[in-house]
Write a structure and sequence with these properties.
- This protein is α+β, with helices and mostly antiparallel strands.
- Helix content is 25%, strand content 18%.
- It has one helix and two strands; from the N terminus they run αββ.
- The chain has a two-stranded antiparallel sheet.
- The protein is flat, with a radius of gyration of 13 Å.
- The two termini are 25 Å apart.
- The mean pLDDT is 77.
Length: 51
C-alpha cells in the first residue's frame, strides 16, 4: 500500500482501510469494477466476480 498523494503513510489508517474491505460482502455475480485513487489514478481495488 502506498501513501496517498501528499500525505504521510499512517499505519492506523491502512489497518482501518483493510478492515473495512474485509468486512464488505463479496458479490457472487456481476461484472468486475476496478477503482482508482482519485488524485493519482493508482489502482486501489477490484470488485465483483472474476471471470
Amino acid at each position: 500500500m502506498t501513501a496517498r498523494a501528499g500525505e504521510a503513510f499512517e499505519t492506523g489508517r491502512a489497518v482501518s482501510d483493510v478492515e473495512a474491505l474485509l468486512a464488505e460482502p463479496v458479490p457472487a455475480a456481476g461484472p468486475t469494477v476496478d477503482e482508482g485513487e482519485p488524485v493519482t489514478g493508482e489502482w486501489t481495488v477490484t470488485r465483483g466476480r472474476a471471470s
